[in-house]
Amino acid sequence: MHTPFLLCSTSNACSTASVSAMVVLANPALDAIPILSSPKPCACFSTVPVVDLSMPGAAEALVRACDDFGFFKIAGHGIPMELMQKLEAEALRFFHFPQADKEKTRPADPFGYGNKQIGPNGDIGWVEYLLFAVTADPSAYTYMDCSFRSALLDFMLSVRKLAREVLELMAEGLKLKKREFFSNLVLGDGSDGIFRLNHYPKFPPLEKFNCSLTGFGEHTDPQLISILRSNNSAGLQISLRDGSWVSVPPDSESFFINVGDTLQVLTNGRFKSVRHRVLANGSKPRISMIYFFGAAPTEKIAPLEELMGEGERSKYREFTWSEYKKGAYKTRLGDYR
């Protein structure tokens, strides 16, 4: 059994033995889940950029948020709250099944149900999840019951429409000649979309140790963008440009957008792929719904010449999405790619 990885300051040191026992008892078959110091109240990211799609100037605001943080919140998106709540309810219903029943569901290889183990490279967290390939083939979802499948497909369709609007506004704000460039890249035939439902269950609270369990370790998303919606449970954190971590206040009515590695390359590093993580909130379960928008496997990715200034050189060699994806998923979550 490995000793938990501690990032607590000396003045707020965790009681390692007590916390270890708590984590190990939860699942003795796994190594201890990493423990992090709990965020201070002042570390709350209260100035999350908000882009209201229904207001003039949305394209410029969106680009400004990508320049400054690689992360922003979408309001005025037009997706009914009932649609979000329906999928949330279906997800909670599934995740509250007995563990033996959930284990009978298609195991994550890579798509299906997974528990604590995130990918094949040794990353673990206080999370269980369902991972779906986005496909036009309805048989890909037949291992879920009809009501779950209906809620899932309705939600994904709405988020795809939202992604198109966001990506075309982004191209407009960057003054690309082709407004549909980004949207065609990840919404065209053969594009590689992934949809993830994460559940961070309740567990014995660690507040008295001033520590939190890692729900999902720090990482960047390799795709172009990812669109996230969660319930009103805290836990999401992003890393600012100075390396500090800040907590994102929950907002179940809005969507959050992450700039991914592919978009960083296309803009030649102007937009930075945002590092983020989730700390498990022991007192309240968290449900996250994330749609990752990737290009077609054979699509070539390289900095766009029309976004490069005179004399500016490419910082990245050209690669296909398949090449980068294969390399990215061979790394640990926190590795720099």
TrEMBL record:
Its EC number is 1.14.11.13. Residues 190-295 form the Fe2OG dioxygenase domain. GO terms for molecular function: gibberellin 2-beta-dioxygenase activity; metal ion binding. InterPro entries: DIOX_N (IPR026992), IPNS-like_FE2OG_OXY (IPR044861), IPNS-like_sf (IPR027443), Iron_ascorbate_oxido_reductase (IPR050231), Oxoglu/Fe-dep_dioxygenase_dom (IPR005123). The keyword Iron applies. The keyword Oxidoreductase applies. Keywords: Dioxygenase, Iron, Metal-binding, Oxidoreductase. It is an enzyme of class 1 (oxidoreductase). Signal peptide: none annotated. Its cofactor is L-ascorbate. It catalyses: gibberellin A1 + 2-oxoglutarate + O2 = gibberellin A8 + succinate + CO2. Belongs to the iron/ascorbate-dependent oxidoreductase family. GA2OX subfamily. This is gibberellin 2beta-dioxygenase.
